[in-house]
Amino acid sequence: MSTTVEIPEPPRSTAPAAKPFVATFLDHLVAKKIVSKEIADQLTQEALLRGSKSKKTLVDILIEDFKIDSEVLCDEVAHFYSFKLVKLGETNARR
What is the mean pLDDT of residues 38-48? Predict the structure, then answer.
């Protein structure tokens, strides 16, 4: 006499799949109105086609190809990752 045991399926996650870094950082730049939605879409498609073959970073591409101000982009990378920006000329900067 054999008995069958039903194994229930694991619950399916309703959380959305995580976006790759390129998409989330570009979403951040679009929300801050630093790049347009069109530029973000174009870069996302190029990143998908290129894969990990390119040595250029997203910030490098935005600076070189789209002429986005490098200081603004570096500030946004720091903000996106929540780095504290310290200006070297400030006398009250903690060491």
Answer: 86
